[in-house]
Every structure is written in structure tokens, then in C-alpha cells.
Design brief:
The protein has about 220 residues and is an alpha+beta fold. Helix content is about 50%, strand content about 15%. The strands form two sheets. The protein has a four-stranded antiparallel beta sheet. A two-stranded parallel ribbon has the order 5-6. A hairpin with a 3-residue loop joins strand 3 and strand 4. Helix 2 packs across helix 3, helix 6 packs across helix 8 and helix 6 crosses helix 9. The two termini are about 60 Å apart.
Length: about 220
């Protein structure tokens, strides 16, 4: 990887001055500060009790400009920024495109299994933007894990069973009309209305709650 090559070059330059610190490089948030940057000069200056900007200048002088690095720049308080040559960027892009289906993938966790559960909307209630958000995030996490070598099991419970379905059944049978509900363009709205009505009626008559449990038990038993 280009990052590994850059790190090796910077490490060689730093080792000419001191071997006390490990070099870390990263891509800056703002591209005007180069393709990669490092704060090694500031960390090393603290250890050697030197001026960080001068230390950065000293390290920069040891960095050769070759087929990989086109430009080196030192900025306050002691960052060293690097720009890659167009040839390096072009070669890297060609390598990526030639193996695009496997780019970024890893074998480090191959054989390991993991479950990613996400979204799990209640099918008796309207979908919201929150369901979309959790679905996208969950799917993205699963994709990343697969790329890292995991065997991923995606678990999305559509209307996971619970007592609420017993309440819904009781409400439909007591105040609803299943035939009309099935013909509605948006039946979920009617299901929500009936579910809300169940709870309002249960406030006046707590025994209705028990009916919800009874119907849920029938549902679990396959009745």
C-alpha cells in the first residue's frame, strides 16, 4: 500500500535523527495540506526537548523526493505534509480498478461468524425515517464485516412477535373489520387506530390487557 511505503520512507528519515518514536501518518481532513501528514516532529521534539518546527524542518531535509513523493512541506506547529506524484496516484488507481471486487477486503477474520441485527420494524405501525436510518447503518456494518472476512448473518425481524400482536388481534376482532382492512390502500393506519383504541379501552377496563395475552398465547400455539 502507498501508505506503508510513505511510512517506511518517513521512518527511515526520522531514524537518522532518533529511533525513540514510532512514525504515524494519516490523510489530512483538508486536501490543501497534502495527501498524507505526520506529527512525528512534535512528538519527537517533546522527547528531545527541541523546537517542533525546527525538528520538522530537520526531518523534512532527510526525506528524498522520488517517484513516490513529489512535495514535502512543513507547517506550524510542526506538521510535515506530503504530496504524491501523479504517477504514483495513477498506478494505485489502476491497481484498484484491476481488482475492484476485492479491493479493501481482508482475510484476518475468515472463519469467524457474527450476527448483525438491525431495523426490525413493527409491521403493524407505519415506517419512519428512523427505520430507514437503522436499516442503512445495519446493512453498511454488515458489508464492512463481510469485507473484513467475517461470515455475517443479517437478522431483520419483521414484526417480531410479542404481546402487542395479541392486543392487535383482540382489537381487530372486537372493533375492526378484517375484510375492510384487507381492501384498504393503507391498512396500517387502521391497525394503528385499533391498537391505540385497545390501550384507551384498557385504561378504562384493565381486564382487556389479559385478553391481549390470551390471544398472543393462541398465536404462539398456532391457533
Amino acid at each position: 500500500m502507498i501508505k506503508d511505503q510513505i511510512q517506511a520512507i518517513i521512518t527511515a528519515a526520522v531514524n537518522k535523527i532518533s529511533t525513540r518514536s514510532t512514525v504515524h501518518i494519516q490523510s489530512p481532513d483538508n486536501p490543501q495540506f497534502g495527501d498524507y501528514t505526520t506529527n512525528i516532529a512534535m512528538r519527537l521534539a517533546k522527547e528531545l526537548k527541541k523546537n517542533p518546527l525546527q525538528m520538522a524542518e530537520e526531518i523534512a531535509k532527510q526525506i528524498p523526493k522520488d517517484e513516490i513523493i513529489e512535495k514535502v512541506e512543513v507547517v506550524k506547529p510542526g506538521f510535515i505534509n506530503f504530496w504524491l506524484t501523479k504517477e504514483t496516484l495513477s498506478k494505485n488507481l489502476i491497481q484498484i480498478l484491476s481488482n475492484i471486487n476485492n479491493y479493501g477486503k481482508s482475510e484476518t477474520t475468515r472463519g469467524k461468524k457474527i450476527i448483525v441485527e438491525y431495523s426490525s420494524p413493527n409491521i403493524a405501525k407505519p415506517f419512519t425515517i428512523g427505520h430507514l436510518r437503522s436499516t442503512i447503518i445495519g446493512d453498511a456494518i454488515a458489508n464492512l464485516l463481510e469485507a473484513a472476512g467475517w461470515t455475517v448473518f443479517r437478522d431483520n425481524h419483521l414484526g417480531d412477535w410479542g404481546t402487542q400482536f395479541g392486543k392487535q388481534i383482540y382489537a381487530i376482532k372486537t372493533w375492526g373489520n378484517i375484510g375492510k382492512i384487507e381492501k384498504m390502500q393503507q391498512p396500517v393506519k387502521e391497525l394503528v387506530r385499533l391498537y391505540v383504541k385497545f390501550h384507551k379501552e384498557a385504561e378504562k377496563n384493565p381486564e382487556i390487557e389479559e385478553q391481549g395475552k390470551i390471544w398472543f398465547k393462541k398465536l404462539e400455539d398456532g391457533n
